[in-house]
User: What shape does this take?
Amino acid sequence: MTAVPATGQTLAANLGRVTAAVAGTVRGLNADDARQLVTRAASRRGALRQLDRHLAAGPDALTSGSADAPLAVIALAGLLAGEGYHGVRVPCCAGCGAAGVLRHRIEGGRLCDTCDRRSRREPCAGCGQDRVVNKRTPQGTLCCSCAQPRGECAACGQVRRVAARRSDGAPLCKMCHLSPAQRCVTCGRARAVAAHTAAGPVCRACYAPPPRACGECGQQRPIARRATADQPDLCKRCAARPLDTCAVCGQQRRCSRRAAQPVCEDCRRAGHQPGPPARPGADPQAERARKTARARRVLPGRLTALLAEPGHGVLAQLEPLIAALVSTPAPSSVLDWVSRRSGAQLVADLAVRARGEPVRYQLLDTYPQTLALHHLRGLLVHAGLLPEREEYLDRIEPWLDQLLASCPPTPRSFARSPPGISCAGPACEPATRASLPAPRAGLAVISWSPRSSWPG
Assistant: This one.
């Protein structure tokens, strides 16, 4: 900022020079619109002179995003960005990274009011911790918590911070004070007010924090952790992610916990999904073969523990299932399935019920129709314990029985056997199946219609 305009120039000359500089820097901005925006950003004569000096010294002041600039430059950048002009970067707070009014200047940038207060922390005379000064007394500085008056609560008798006072002036603590009830604009109930919004008072059950831009992912979401001197505002999703070194870009970012390796949000959006970390110097194919061999060693013991009867071992009719699963070319996937809670419980329960009845389709149809059951049914067919059938067609009947179990008798019989339609086994033609109404849609209509309109 060494180039200083000569003194004695008129206000009109300053305005014309600034207008020309702004119009030449921002694409798509004509001189008339630039003059209006400059007049709004620098309404005072001193602000216009500061804007003129700064743009003369640094023509890229509106595109660099540097906060080491006069307030008029920051205001002008905000107006240009608000009007939708591209290439303009609004300076942000050096503490929290948020764009706004930056009144406090520091070395190399500016601070907002909140970060400025946080930067002026001093030891509190009450609690002894370094906190933002709220009040200065002859005994020393006090933070916000210690500056609140304390007294004996008129209700519980404890010496606590005074939250409110009765009509006679008696103090009440926060635990004993009940906020006055008002009618919530969302639920309509008379409850204690949690916040006053533009629509009116809102209770705690209906209140939702207003969304704003998360400093990590940039999404408009409710903020779970407010900005500090070390980190920006964080939404609930980003606040739960640990700070780690991203395996793709190598930067210290908040990474997902579900990935095998730490991956930041930007790299995940770009499509990077690294696999599990390999051992140093290990060949990927050799690593895969090692995991397959391990699964093949562990799988027989895991299946035997699930299917064996205490004191009698594995039933004869279930031995082909173990042999078929152990010899599968992908033992890792089978081991993963039987290690899950749903798969392990289903296999163990089937082994118990197989002691009194043979394993047939009728036995499997009594279970809830879930993805785990469909997978087990396919394994039994592969092992030769069950014959092949029209799977997608034959499992409609038990699924429909499960769906209609909670319906009254009349609509259940109507939805179970629509008039004039019979779909039993392979005799049902594909065209007839396509003409059948969707069961869930039919149930919705039956539940909505009055009882007097039900047939039968």
Q: What stands out?
A: The radius of gyration is 36 Å.
